[in-house]
Amino acid sequence: MFGLVASILFVLIWSTGFIVARAVVPHGAPELVLAVRLVATTLLLAVAAALARQSWPRGKRLGLHLAAGAMLHGLYLTISWWAVGRGMPAGIMALLGATQPLMVAVASVLLLGDRLPGRGWAGLAIAIIGVTCVLLPAIERSGASAVPVVPVLAGLFAIIAMTGGTLIQRGQIAGDPILMSGAAQNLGGALVAIAATLIVGDWRWDNDPMLWIGLAWSVLGLSAAGLSLLVWLVRHQGPTAMSMLLLLVPPLAAIEAWALFGEQLGPVQLIGFALALGGVLLGRSQGRAKARDAAAELVEPA
After folding, report:
1. Whether 300 contacts 155, CB under 8 Å
2. Helix or strand holding residue 40 (H, E)
3. Which UniProt keywords apply (predicted)?
């Protein structure tokens, strides 16, 4: 039951990332906003972990946490935001993000020895088609043929980095406490964001109330709650099942943009949402017994 609730909460929280980025970026440099967000999240989770008496990782385990955070939080966020800021349409970036579950599924089969049944591959394909339908109007408006090559390559690298960070969660750090894991991994992401801020050298920060509201939600909702749920779902349901949930994020973001900003939401997008939801449900229907067995195996300390 908690797994279902965690899945729903994760998708709802994660979908607000598009909305927050749209609201915050006009008021602050993206790299600087991300650096402040990740540092604040690191401090918040570190205090929570200390109060819960969760010990800080050392040696190789600390290195794995930092590497996972650098890829999942740092590289993915900073590079994708950089790509969008350098001419990559948000719709194209979201479509590239839809390939992440496919990358995770292939890597899990090849590297981790996981097995994805035929209905899993079918559900994944249906969901990706649905996401494409949802994003199609935005892609058409952006003029995809004129998208610069470098931002596209950067966007692909960001998705690969997120895939790598997701897969690391299944290794030796799979049994570590969530709060401590979140603090260490956000620290890894913060180091990347700080380095990106220093390299770019953009210190724009206008103190607009929307900037602070967006930053507060980014820390408490997206980073502290959303990323903690992501790590929990990877460890208890597997990286492929968790990644399939990401395919529901663009459709939900489109609905939120329609409700908040009056963006168009046509029949094609509604059909795409239905396809994405159906594909995710089909792909994640692995049977309760397998899910329990996988969860029991993952929570055992390495």
Report:
1. no
2. helix 30-51
3. Membrane, Transmembrane, Transmembrane helix
Q: Which residues pair with 67 in a beta bridge?
A: none
Using CA atoms, how far apart are residues 184 and 64, in angstroms rounded to an integer? 9
**What is the phi/psi pair of residue 61, to 5°?**
-65, -40
The DSSP bridge partners found for residue 28 are 205
Handedness of CA 204, 210, 213, 219 (dihedral sign): negative
pLDDT tens digits, 144-191: 555 667 777 888 898 899 888 888 887 778 888 889 999 999 999 999
- The type of residue at 235 is R
Residue 18 backbone class (left: φ over 0; alpha: ψ -120 to 50; beta: rest): alpha
Compute φ and ψ for 28, nearest 5 degrees: -160, 150
CA pair distance 185, 232, nearest whole angstrom: 13
pLDDT tens for residues 242-300?
888 888 877 777 777 677 766 666 777 778 778 877 877 787 775 444 444 444 443 33
218 Cβ contact partners less than 8 Å away, ≥ 6 residues apart: 20, 24, 33, 37
What is the C-alpha to C-alpha distance for residues 188 and 190, in angstroms, rounded to an integer?
Answer: 5
Distance CA 217, CA 198 (A): 24
Alpha carbons 207 and 42: distance in angstroms, whole number: 22
Residues 225, 220: Cα–Cα separation, whole Å: 6
